[in-house]
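FIELD: query
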Amino acid sequence: MEQILDLIGTYVAEAFETAGYDRALGKVTVSNRPDLCEYQCNGAMAGAKRYHKAPLQIAQEVAGILDGCDALQSAEAVKPGFLNLKLSAAYLADYLNAMKSDDRLGVSAAKEKKKIIIDYGGANVAKPLHVGHLRSAVIGESVKRILRYLGHETIGDVHLGDWGLQMGLIIAQLRSEKPDLPYFDEAFEGEYPKEAPFTISELEQIYPQASKRSKEDEAFRQEALRSTEQLQHGNRGYRAIWQHILDVSIADLKKNYDSLNVSFELWKKESDAQPYIPGLVEYLKKEGYAHIDQGALVVDVAEESDTKKIPPCMILKSDGASLYNTTDLATIVMRMEKWKPDHIIYVVDKRQDLYFTQVFRCARKTKLVDEDTQLTFLGFGTMNGRDGKPFKTRDGGVMRLENLIAEIDAEMLRKILENHEADPEEAKETAKIVALSAIKYGDLSNQASKDYIFDTDKFTSFEGNTGPYLLYTMVRVKSILRKYMEESQKTPEDLDGFVILPAERESEKALGLTLTAFAPAVALAGEELAPHKLCGYLYELANQFNSFYHETKILSEPLQAQKESYLATLVLTLRVLECGIALLGFSAPEKM
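FIELD: result
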């Protein structure tokens, strides 16, 4: 289904051509003066010098040709040469009815479908998710959903950290606490226990204890380093402990990600890339891309056009150990071999910008990716508290993500019970749904690259630009539709058959025009990897609906055809809002 802006643009382009001008001058945009018109065309201004005519004269000629066009209520030339356009109410109604009957609500699939891997999540095993993991999960999930809706094959990869020193620290600490476990008996040849020797709660205590101890006890730190090396070289007992750590951690991570309505197609880990490292290193040496610099193996990635210094990308340290760079490059090799993506997107803290510049340049220079493979760093800002500093607990610690979610759940439940009498269990389920909208919309409505203040009071408000406001609007629509169906004995299928009539009032037309902007809003959010653009659209749609609602007696309208038209508009509005919030990663309750 074509976007309405393109349809209008075709009429205007044909009018320019009929008047003897280049049809390319007929580009139409949404008006920046909605008080004067709905759409505008500035082509006459651009064509004035080319055709040696006053822009107003060109605009008047085109306006004269457009006079009587079925799609337009009016086409007016105004000084110094703008073309102001208003859409015909009948044409708008026809477009809305076509949109209502379209399963995709007017959103066209991308002409060039791509296979896209989105690297988001990035949690470390053996550690709980904290608020610092929120933005990667929420932004990555929404970007994945938007791109998938646009027809791309999207693959989300959690990319877990499971291969560094933290593994050796846990093994060394466990050996210190429970030396009799069979994993530490070099003579043991039987099968290791299937049950892990720790729970997730115990595991989350072991790591910080070991980390603290390693900073105070050099002998323990050296033991942890040896344990890491032995793990990476295949020590059988250590590999069994490592597998226990993965099993326990991933089960807990999945539970936490599920609470955010975030899912991954791939649960790949740093360790999955390790088999690719020897071949990568050999290739970089053989092809002459890598050289020794102060004992380390590096690839130069600086370019003449650089305005700041870009250090070489280090592949191996002087002691032969690999680094994050090595693992990320090996991961790219693995992804190109297994999935052959057209585009890889990394949703990571924006402070990693230089790092990803090095990795991307190295991957391109060394031909680890195809020439047309896109590599995108989608860097996000910091989630801060009201003091403007990174979000902390009341005692100054890093807040666990599940605790933040629980706090918002509790606040939403308090507000729901404060404003309405409700069944406590039903209210709890509703509070969870609304709380998730508060958290996700509070994050996504901000441009990803910018820092933002996480304000619980603001984000949980039912007024203003918030998730709960969107859901409250949707529940209002559902309530009206439900009441009508109860009174008239109609079904949802009956409502689907209702027809939208030409708008008679400004608020009705404004709502219709906003509905037509859904497809371009989704397309723009996908093109720019910018969920905040979709948030802005949904907020505008909710506002336009509420203006229409307050000015229109929907259920008491005496003319049945007009009432059905209003209800059909409500059905379409609800479908667009439901689709929009699904792309952001949350849903709406039936009642609030």
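FIELD: remark
Residues 560-584 form the longest helix (25 residues).
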